[in-house]
Amino acid sequence: MVHQGNRKRQEAEQAKIKIRAFIFDLDGVLTDTAEYHYRAWKRLADEERVPFTRNDNEKLRGISRRASLNLIFQERKLTEYKALELMDRKNGYYREYLNNITTGDLLPGVIELLGKLQARGCRLAMASASKNASTVIEQLNIASYFDAIADGNSVKKTKPAPDLFLYAANQLGLLPENCLVVEDAEAGIVAARVAGMVTIGIGPPERVGEADYVYPSVEAIELDDIQGIGC
Ligand code: BG6
Ligand code: MG
């Protein structure tokens, strides 16, 4: 049994070390599945004669399938039966498009960054709201990089709630303050900040400007800019 005082001391020492793990979002950070989500929602919206544009799709970044459905069909009163049927249909279309994903769909700089972090001894995790995340990372052939995976099946409340990131930190056996999150969605940055983690935002400042560090792409991340990396 670990003595209470010892545990507190261990935790305090761990916290001082600062960043020991990088937690990556999947869609929009490691690969650009946003396009496939768009095409699947668009196909469904057209079939249901509901307006849906690429601009509308931007609001769906990072949020769950159910939250996306609610935004697209907000004008309609849906029975639970209908809502489940619509989500199922959209997911069928999305999974059709996912069949085409290969390692060629990794965004530029991703493999280099994962390799660099792994070589430094940083722990790596993936935290995605998607229930399809494991299929995607298998097809991208990057599963072996991650010490922990949190996806849409791991927690009840997904982003902007902090639960997915806290789940990933817990799987890594680390405190939230020892984790840095890489995210492309506003909802993801909010979630990581609420979790008490350091954040890198990928994308325009109007979307991820609340992050501690902002880069236009993963390829542009400069590890030397980031303070307190302890791995
Ligand atoms: C997130 C995407 O990663 O996963 C969202 O950014 C998507 O756009 C969400 O809605 C849920 O995905 P899925 O695969 O469970 O429908
Ligand atoms: Mg994302």
Strand count, sense and barrel status of the largest sheet are: 6 strands, parallel
Tell me the domain tally: 2
Q: Uncertain runs with pLDDT below 50, 5 residues or more?
A: none
The CATH topology name of the largest domain reads Rossmann fold
Question: How are helices and strands ordered from N to C?
Answer: HEHHHHHEHEHEHEHE
- Strands of the biggest beta sheet: in what spatial order? 3-2-1-4-5-6
Bound ligands, each once: 6-O-phosphono-beta-D-glucopyranose, magnesium ion
* Radius of gyration based on Cα positions: 18 Å
Estimate what percentage of residues fall within beta strands. 5-15%
Distance between the termini: 28 Å
Account of the protein in words:
This protein is α/β, with parallel strands linked by helices and 231 residues long. It folds into two domains: 4-32 and 105-225, HAD superfamily/HAD-like (Rossmann fold); 34-98, Orthogonal Bundle (DNA polymerase, domain 1), CATH 1.10.150. Helix content is 45%, strand content 11%. The protein contains ten helices and six strands; from the N terminus they run H-E-H-H-H-H-H-E-H-E-H-E-H-E-H-E. The protein has helices at residues 4-17, 34-47, 54-58, 65-72, 80-98, 110-120, 133-140, 163-172, 186-195, 205-208; strands at 21-24, 123-127, 148-150, 179-183, 198-202, 213-215. A six-stranded parallel β-sheet has the order 3-2-1-4-5-6. Strand 5, helix 10 and strand 6 form a beta-alpha-beta unit. The radius of gyration is 18 Å and the shape is globular. The two termini are 28 Å apart. The structure holds 6-O-phosphono-beta-D-glucopyranose and magnesium ion. Residues 26-27, 37, 60-65, 68, 91, 128-132, 152 line the site of 6-O-phosphono-beta-D-glucopyranose.
